[in-house]
Amino acid sequence: MGHRYLAMGVRGDALDGTNPFALLADSVPGARTAMGEHTLVVVGAEFAGGRPGFIILTDRVNLAAGDTANGEELQDHGCTLAFSPAGRDG
């Protein structure tokens, strides 16, 4: 879609003790006072050496540039894995 997202990596099996909304508010200038203008996407990831973790993505509305900050545009709604027995089992 041509939109740019800011990304942050978080290592670990779970987001225990990590609040993605607090990270956004604390890490992106102006986000704390304009949270409604941001999208927040959290995706499981595997880092170097097979270490588990998460990628946290954010974008901010910029209507002049046609950017509605819609994280759903990153989803693959036609993903066959999600509809396969392996996808349902985990």
Question: What order do the helices and strands come in, and which of them pair?
Answer:
Layout lengths: L5 E6 L8 H8 L10 E10 L3 E10 L24 H5 L1
In short:
It is built from two helices and three strands, in the order E-H-E-E-H. With 90 residues, the chain is α+β, with helices and mostly antiparallel strands.
Descriptive overview:
- The protein is α+β, with helices and mostly antiparallel strands.
- It has one domain.
- 14% of the residues lie in helices and 29% in strands.
- The protein contains two helices and three strands.
- It has helices at 20-27, 85-89; strands spanning 6-11, 38-47, 51-60.
- The chain has a three-stranded antiparallel sheet, with helices on one face.
- Strand 2 and strand 3 (51-60) form a beta hairpin.
- It starts with 5 loop residues before the first strand and ends with a helix.
List keywords for this structure.
alpha+beta
Secondary-structure element series: EHEEH
Tally of alpha and pi helices: 2
User: What percentage of the residues does DSSP assign to strands (E)?
Assistant: 25-35%
Alpha-beta content class = alpha+beta
What ranges have pLDDT less than 50 throughout 5 or more consecutive residues?
A: none
Q: How many β-strands, per DSSP?
A: 3
**What percent of residues adopt helix (DSSP H or I)?**
10-25%
Average per-residue pLDDT, rounded, comes to: 84
Provide the spatial order of strands within the biggest beta sheet: 1-3-2
Rg, Cα atoms, Å: 15 Å
What does the largest sheet look like? 3 strands, antiparallel
What number of structural domains do the residues give?
A: 1
Distance between the termini: 29 Å
Query: What is the general shape?
Result: globular
